[in-house]
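I have been asked to look over a protein record a colleague put together. What it holds is a sequence and that sequence's fold in token form. Please read both lines and tell me whether the tokens look consistent with the sequence. I do not need a full report, just your reasoning and any doubts. This is what I was given:
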Amino acid sequence: MAHTSSPRHHAAVNRASATLGARALVLEPGRTCWRRERADRFAVLMENAAYFAALEAALSKARRSVMILGWQFDPRTRLNPESRIGDRQAEIGHRLRMMVKENQELDVRLLLWKSPLLIAASQGFFPQRGQRWFRKRMADFRLDHPGPLGACHHQKVVVIDDRLAFCGGGDIAVDRWDSPDHFDADPRRCMPSGVLAPPRHEVMAMVDGRAALALGDLARARWARATGERTRPARVEEDPWPEWIEPDLVDVEVGIARTEPGRGRRRDVRENEALHLESIARARRLIYLENQYFTSPVIAAALAARLAEPDGPEVVVVSTGHSPSWFDSMTMDPARAGLLRRLEAADVHGRFSAFSPRTAGGAVIIVHSKVTIIDDELLRIGSTNLNNRGLGFDTECDVMAAPTDVEGPAAIGGLRRRLLAHFLGVDVETYAAAEAREGGVGAAIRSFGPDRLRPLDGPPPSGLARLLGEWQIGDPCSPDDSWMPWKRLRAADVLPAPSGDQLEIDDQRQVV
């Protein structure tokens, strides 16, 4: 029997469509994003197990062009963790060289951050060695520096034939693979050194259509600035999309947002900061944030303003329990602790929650993803950390999907519940039932106990760590204050004091 929709049903659908159409207005080229383009398909790859498998499949279909932008790239990385350690055929560096050897029409270009020796040593593979790895012109490998001393290139983008693009927080490196199970001792995380990499959570977006071409334009623009060489988009008929991956969203508006520090006559680009602030301001029910860092006073001030509203949105943050590196534990962790205390003070209506994930055995899971979900209607994935440098000092690239169809919220809400269920070690249905029963995301998470998603806190920082955190050492807002940390103290002053004083902000950008 055919189903006939009632006038009430049509009215509800029309209202929902109007609301979702208005959500897309958050993407304003020239302010909150660089470009706004359509993607025929938009897929979310949760964990690098999914990303590396999709990347391997897409590379096998590359015909004319592969462009890779990264903070880090290790040619020894095995995209298939089941392969034997030391098997050169399985390493991406060897794979790229052989692709060019077998297809003379294929142009492979890699543009990586020229990291200082101290940081390169912590990565386990000096980027300068990459130039020797590809020295026979099997691929064009270049190192790039954004200009301001202390800044880094942090964009993570791969574009294949300008038909398919990956964008997110994941680097191609030997310590980045993990599965959604985050097993405590997974031999597939074994690095060339024989040491097991710690469990890690990553999220990447995969897009095609005009959105992929736009990301190719971004990569070409950076290549031209770094090398002086201009390249053209590839023209390929074949579709490199991996057949087994079903898109989460189809025919969706995608905004591309950047961060670029000012250099010479080039003005700084702060689209990522503007997009975060606009998204937070427009949220009605829920702001969900996954991020490696959470130290930006500008973002915290915007969240505090919404928490102070009687009918504002719930705010849920998921981040790493403590930073894995000594420097970050001394700089980022104390700064985050201070912001969390002030947000808790601003949370007079009980709508703020912050958690850190653990494995089944209690080990810290490194949250390296950068995901923002607003009201289950806007989905943002990228490289931008929620710290000062991610919003104004380093180069970053994020993509935001703003679906205008009524199916979009169901897909984005399903993704969010899948993310939280995998952290909790339960199936999606079990978590969704808890969320419906408890009436909120934070309450639903707490109903499972603190074993897998624990309250985000840590031991009291030392005096030195508190001092470094207060002065935001290592976390400049822009080249203007990169060596003048006293300028950054003004940014922290906009947050409410732990006494619970209300926050009032007219223009968050004034504190940068």
Summary: The CA atoms of residues 66 and 160 lie 5 Å apart. The first strand starts at residue 35 and ends at 46.
